[in-house]
Amino acid sequence: MQIQNFFYERYGDVNVLSKNPLVIQSLPRFSNAFKDGGFDSSDYRQVDTYYGPLLEHFLRQYGYNNIFLVDIDGNVVFCVRKDEHIGTNLKTGEYSSFSIGEVFKEGLNHIKFSDLSWCEDSKDFTFMAAAPVFDLTNRLLGVIIVEVPYSKIDVFLSQRDGLGETGEIYIVGDDNFIRSKSRFFTQNTILKLEIDTEGTRDAFRGNTDIKIIKDYRNIPVISAYTPLENLRDVNWILLVKIDVKEALHSVLAIKTDLIIIGTIITIITVTYLYFTLRKKQIKSTDAELP
């Protein structure tokens, strides 16, 4: 539910931003100034001086990495934190096939959320979310795109309460690559570690279950898994697991104690019966003597 709510809230955030009067006013002004004279023109600097700080406030308020304004032609006419995308065209340029280009094309028609992708500027994985921007006459002006840091969802996946030393929560995408950090690897595993287990295959078939299976380390674990439904734009499954050895440690300890206690009781009982019967045999022998 936390993961699903994360997506619902981000959809809501970008939808609200796309309808904000500040965004509706600033996008065409940035676009016109960019087309007339570029980023170094006095007109563009004037628009940036007025609207830039206000849009930066949104970035801090929502905790985004960046906010982009893209006009209807695909030009990235503004971003709060200037990066390699500024001034490029998301329809025809070098980033048209990247996540930002894909969400822009979809964002012209409806709200679109991307899967995780690497952001070179922040040196971290991010999500891209896009929404169309319309003016008061319902004329399409362009798209607003926000860059959401991975840390926003990692806070759910890094929980360890009740999972002991070997338990973990992780997400796998439909390409079988993990979307979270494994606690058993020092290097980053996001989109690098491929996981194809009995649990992942069953979850992608739409099933929810708890089973003892071998995990991606080929170690027996108790695994609970389920598809993450209603995420709209990503096809993910959620798995929670803990090593069988650790999960059943207390049960095995009690079993071992019971075996030891049972063995001791058996030895004592056998010893008692032996000496009792021995004593009876001696008395019987003594009674038969003349």
UniProtKB/TrEMBL annotation:
Its main location: membrane. Gene3D superfamilies: PAS domain (3.30.450.20). InterPro entries: dCache_1 (IPR033479), Sensor-like_sf (IPR029151). It is a multi-pass membrane protein. One of its GO terms (cellular component) is plasma membrane. It is found in: Cell membrane. Keywords: Cell membrane, Membrane, Transmembrane, Transmembrane helix. It comes from the Bacteria. The chain crosses the membrane at residues 258-275. This is Putative methyl-accepting chemotaxis protein. It comes from Candidatus Jettenia caeni.
